[in-house]
TrEMBL record:
This is Transcriptional regulator. Pfam families: MazE_antitoxin. It comes from the Bacteria. Residues 7-52 form the SpoVT-AbrB domain. GO terms for molecular function: DNA binding.
Amino acid sequence: MSVLRLTQIGNSVGVILPKETLARLKLVKGDTVFLTDAANGVTLTPYDPALEEQLKLGREFMHDYRDTFHQLAK
């Protein structure tokens, strides 16, 4: 667990992430992160939850039409 402090950044308030956290999340300066509500607070992730849902739907579609895709691949 890391303790983070809020800090003034211009007219906004920000959080400075420790180097170890950035490395674990594979983040670099300029990357985008997503903050989502969770049962016990919030979750910070580099992965877009909306994209995950789209990928799931795409995988289901490909599974449903796998024979068609197999024929198209020939």
